[in-house]
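Quick entry, no commentary yet.
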Amino acid sequence: MDIPFLKKIIPPGLNFSFLSGKPSRVVGIDIGTYSTKVVQLRYESERAILETYGELLNAGYLKSATGVGSGFLRFLDKDIATLVQDVLRESKVTARDAVLSVPATSGFTVTIPFPKISLQEINDAVPLEARKYVPIPLSEVTLAWTILENDDTRDTIEVLLVAVPKEVVEKFKRIAELTGIRTRAIEIETFSVVRSLIGRDPTTTAVINMGHHSTTLAVVDRGIVRLSHGFNHGSQELTRAIERGLAVSEERAEALKREMGLSDRIEEREITSVMTPLVTSLLTEVNHAMQLYNRKTSRKIQKVDFTGGGSQLKGLIDLAATHFGTEVTRGNPFSRVVTPPFIQPMLQEISPSFSVAIGLALYELTSR
């Protein structure tokens, strides 16, 4: 089965074109390396209404690794399917139409400049150029591309290229079959995050998704992803540092990280001194990538949005604002959907962990 995964309108996803019509309910399923999140939305009058959501830790489910792939992808299909079935049941999800995310580390996203040539010439040239950017044989990936907005003031045309290993797509299809869900689309998580946080905001924004094992930077201009770059640093790195530095258990280290964060209290500096150098190192790498981007374009990054479970670290936003010298916020994807007022404070607190799942569930409702 041939599955294209670029919508005509950005951002891209893996469209299952044999499914026609738009469902009234969709569940976004984000299988992360630390936990699995689901969000069910109901579409009504061009609005997305939150019906239910939930999260389950992967520990206890994903134990037997196959040795192939990275993150949760290296685990057995049946174990992943059991995890998904349980989080759907515990969260009281009723929708069977689902959109799933591909980890950013399992796909390749790059913007390629071309001279101003015809559409046919670009389509002919992209597969040849793709070999320079995709680090595995093209015969092993599902490849798609789209032309970004054409700026008449420039002498080049930018093409957004997306590639996902075929084995990753096949694994998701097997998991969906075992779980009993109808897969509407499969999408690289970067685009899901952008949809849930940015939408149609034209402001040039850097979105930093700080996960358990890795962090992803996406630069978005006029709602379109212009840059996607990954860093091999995540929140687990901070937990491991506390565990080693203070000689405590992993559970205690995780608790200390969440409770203390980057505290400036004298009595908590021992913990802070372990984490701050690691966080500063990550921010330095991210800032370097952002500055490289700024040097190549006239539309500079104007603000930074943090998301992902790791972004809930206390003190991170203030430290990042000082480091970047620009406006820094923690995004709230639940603000993009209709929710009961009485639970909004609680949703805002947990929202960074649900950016991908909300963006997935919004896939069928909006193009961005």
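second:
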Amino acid sequence: MAEAFPDLEIYVLKGDPDALLAWLNADLGSMTVVSSKGDRQHWQWPNAQGVMDVYFNANAEKNLASVWFKQNHTPWSTDLDCARAAHAALGTEVRCSLGGWQEEDDNSQAEATWMKLIHGQEKPFVWDK
């Protein structure tokens, strides 16, 4: 089994914060809404490893909302594991990176490998954000 990513991020098509929060509450346990300002929300989940911060941005990229788990205290090791769970629960398109990101990485995503989960299928693609 691969080592767990230290944080996770997925992108959800037309992400509905209420639906996302309901999914996370069902899969992880009760989330607390820390703040809600416009299209951005901050949630926290107290767990055995401490407190995990989750940030939601409804307008991260065109019609895609970002869900960022700042600390990975989830049952998912990778962004793809998280995206699979979100896609199964929400029934909508979910995107994620297939690899980790490092501070020194070039911000160009043209060479990055991404995965799109749509209609029960997984399709790799190049996302030139």
